[in-house]
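User: Short chain dehydrogenase/reductase family 39U, member 1. Structure?
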Amino acid sequence: MRVVIGGGSGFVGRELTRFLCKSGHEVTIISRQPGPGRITWADLESSGLPPCEGAVNLAGENFMHPLRWWNESFKKDLFSSRIDTTRSLAKAIASSSSPPRAWVLVTGVACYKPSQTMQYTEETEWNPFNLFSLLVKEWEAAGSLPENVARNTRHVVVRSGLVLGADGGAIKQMLPPFRLGLGGPLGSGQQPFPWIHVADLAGIIARSLEPPSKPVPSIPEIYNGVAPAQNTNYEFTKALGRVLRRPAVLPAPRLVLQALLGVERAAVLTEGQWVLPKRTLESGYEFQYLNLESALKEIVRS
Ligand code: NDP
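Assistant: Predicted structure:
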């Protein structure tokens, strides 16, 4: 199959591309930069969607960008890099003379309100309550397809937890201090820590691109992209320390994180939600990394 991946040059996109190419599929990346195997967003706008059986959007400004201060201009980029690219791809799918059979958008679990007690599944109704949940609402809305296209193109939204992998994401920034024995829990450490190994996120996306076994529903299918294990940030910290054989006892206090990252951005690290991949498991997806220890061992080994 031929798959077009917006933001395919990034952390998740590289893993998905490796996985698809290994299985004999062809990938075209949509990027801000031209290059071999790529088209740009401007090409998509002017020439439309290249012929493909699947389309995915993974584009988005990194919200933990170490060189970007938390201000209005950065927040604007966080929104536009996700919403505008998603809207462009949905528009290109809708105007294609031969739309792909699957359209997969990866968003985040930030739509679910942080809580120590609530458990969220794909069936949970939610309304925006802060900046990040508003982002998810607008992002997912930007991916919707007109009814006549939605009848034949399966639209899947994967709401991802923090993605763990050796080749990028948050853990790349965490590993150096943890290797020096300077790591520790964020804030109280008691907050839920929804996570997924990058290989499983790529696996869930790839599975969504396969020919459907049932008739395509006309509304988006939501899957939570989180491992079934339910861990706190403290448990994650301890597991990473154990795997690295280093102490991991130095906490990063909430006030320090707020000063460094900005209050809204720090809250994503110091608050969390219990998210269950109910529908993902019911769909028959078998996770490769069910617990933190196995995921972190693979990452540290790589
Ligand atoms: P990356 O940070 O690796 O970015 C993916 C790609 O987005 C980049 O390679 C880049 O492609 C493109 N991009 C970056 N900034 C902009 C911008 N300002 N405008 C347009 N495109 C831009 O993301 P990940 O692979 O980690 O994540 C993929 C998706 O999953 C993202 O949308 C992210 O929000 C979401 N997600 C990720 C999580 C994680 O823990 N990693 C958790 C939950 C959701 P290029 O330079 O080629 O244009």
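The chain has a mean pLDDT of 96. The two ends are 29 Å apart (CA to CA).
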